[in-house]
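I'll show one example:
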Amino acid sequence: MTRSSYIFCVLLVAATSCSKSLDTKPTSSIDQTEALKTSDDVSVALVGAYHDMGSANLYGGGAAVTAELLGDYNELNWTGTFQGMTQIKNKDIPVDNYFITGTWLDAYKAINDVNNILASLDVVDAASRDRVEGEAKFIRAACYFELVRLYGKSWNDGDPKSNPGVPLVFKPTGSVGEADKVSRSSVAEVYTQVLKDLSDAEAKLPSENGFYANRAAAAGLIARVALQQGDHTTAAAAADRAINAVLAAGGGLARSYAAAFPNPYPPAPVSNTLEDVFAIQVNTSSGTNSFQTFFSALGRGDIQIKDAHLALYEPGDDRLSLFYTSGGSVFTGKFDNVYGNVHVIRLAEMYLTRAEANFRNSSAVGATPLEDINTLRKRVGLPDLSQGQLDLNAILSERKLELAFEGFNLHDIKRTKDAVGSLSYNSPKLVFPIPKREITVNPNLVQNEGY
């Protein structure tokens, strides 16, 4: 059976007649020695790991939406009825917050999927083994990175070698609720593991891999992690590798900012755009775009855009054209397509990362900072900056507007030691609590400061 057949099986019927192994319990809820006996079994499990990674609370958009609300001071208006989201927006999060718990559980479910796959690599066909290992480690790294930057202190807040991060689990378990009573690894240990997995992934992944993780995606995530650490040499080099890999494969920036967020009418599934380095797939039968749920007037419309944000754009900036008014409130049109794929890594981010890292390092890996920033400004119809106009604030401003509402604001505030209103970047209120249910079942877990 081809890989696309497995996708059809997992997404449309979940556990039916596609193969005999799918007539058993899902692979994420049974021991890998029972489920993953053949290369075909592992292929099915890998598709399942992507599915779990793309859950509504995780890379399906939820983890980014909650980060946007937590990192907002006066640019977003929350009018929704979900108490858990209200608590996050108000920076008053109880330890039993539903969304915080959901992100944690979904991340560890995907990690458990991957650990089962990695424990079964010996049954994978030799021709596919490196790719499977690379994809699995990419997923695990992405989940651990999301966990450590949401539930742990930021890298630059005190000593990452002693600050508690999240538990590192490598042993596959029979079910999500059967994990060993693992203590929290340090922030530094989690980052080290994330970069180790991503380095392995980049070495083993192919340059082209359909809409699955490829070499460019691994390099792109390395760039994101390194920038969060303040390792600008690694960030510039990794972003450059990602850019070159995308361009070599025929990709590039979408022709316009709006084209990076395709919105057909009536709403319909769309392919990845030219600039998607990695995206979670959404269609009429599977996948969730939580950005659309909360940010779009065509969804719940719970998050509106305030004038304080709109005032940040220069006149003539094409990005302004994606805002619209509905019912007297302003919304972003970036996420209006309910079947739109969730952009996890866009090429624009890589240009911004390379520009910032090069600027901070006084280097020109791949291009000068001015060239990269002006590449993005041209796309949105703005005049080039001169060398004299380019400073760190100009680069960070371009980043904020280009990546607005995509989950970056909180993490950029932390790494640049900015503030959220009166809250310093290292306020305990800007860190998620370890979910109450996890503390209850695992006495080795230490709760975060302030909870």
